[in-house]
Amino acid sequence: MSWRNRLDDLPPEQRILVEGGSLSQRFSKRSLTFTHPAFIGGFYGFLISMALFLPHAYAKGWNQDSIRDLAFLGVLLVLILAIIGHASLFMAQFLKRPPISLRRDLVYPMPFIGLSILSVMLVTEMDSGMSENLTSGIRYVGWGFLLIPGPIYVHLSWAPRWRLLCRLEEGLDPFEGGMELEKIPDGENEIEDFDLEMAIEDIEDDPPLLHIAEGEE
After folding, report:
1. Which DSSP helix (H) or strand (E) runs through 153?
2. Distance in angstroms (rounded) separating the CA atoms of residues 216 and 13
3. How does pLDDT run across 163-185, given as a tens digit for each residue?
4. pTM of whole model > 0.90?
C-alpha cells in the first residue's frame, strides 16, 4: 500500500477526505485489490444472507429445501449488490466527485431495523390478521431498510474514496480537476499546540506533590 507514503504530502483537508471515517479506514488497511467496491457490495450481501439464516430457517423449517432456498437468495443478493457496487465505481470515475461522509445515526441502525421487521414477519403470525397489501408493504419496507445502507455507503463514500486511493497508489494526483473540500480553520492546530505547551510548562513550573509515607525520604 504505497499510497500511505504519499498521504503525508497532501494538505490536511485532502488527507482527511482520503482516509475517511472508521469504517473506510478499516477497509483501506486491506489491499485495494480485495476492497474493490464490487467486493464490498457483495460482502454486504453475504452478511445480509447470514443474518437472515436463523429467521428464514425457523419459518421454513430446518430441511434441505429451506437451506437451498436461502443459499439461492444469498447468491442472488451477493451478485446484485456486487453489480451495484461496480456500477457505483463507474459513476465515481465518470463524475470524479469526492466521497461523502454518511450520518452514522441514520445509516447504521437501518439494517437492524429491517432485519427486525423481516424477522417478526417470518417467525410470528402477525400477518395473519392483515390484508395482503399491508403485509407486502411491511415486507418491502423491511427489505428496503435492510438493503439500502450498503449500496448507499458504497456509492457515496467508498467507491469515490477507492478511486482516490488507486490514483495515489499509481503515483497520480487524486484531486485532478479540482474538488470542493472542507477547509480546516487556520490557526486551529496552532491553538491546540499552544494549549499543550502551556499545560506542560505549568507542570514543569509547579510539579504535583507526591504522597510521601512516614519514614520514607
Report:
1. helix 149-153
2. 54
3. 888 888 777 766 764 444 444 34
4. no
Torsion of CA 59, 60, 64, 69, to 10 degrees: -100
Q: How far apart (Å, rounded) are the C-alpha atoms in residues 119 and 123?
A: 6
Question: Is it the case that residue 207 has pLDDT exceeding 70?
Answer: no
**H or E element in which residue 161 lies:** helix 159-169
Q: Over 90: is that where the pLDDT of 25 sits?
A: no
Cα distances (Å, whole numbers) of residue 116 to 7, 70, 119, 195, 217: 41, 18, 5, 48, 65
Q: What does residue 80 show for φ and ψ, rounded to 5 degrees? A: -65, -45
Taking every pair of Cα atoms in the chain, the longest distance, rounded to a whole number of angstroms, is 85
- Tell me if residue 213 falls in helix, strand or coil: coil
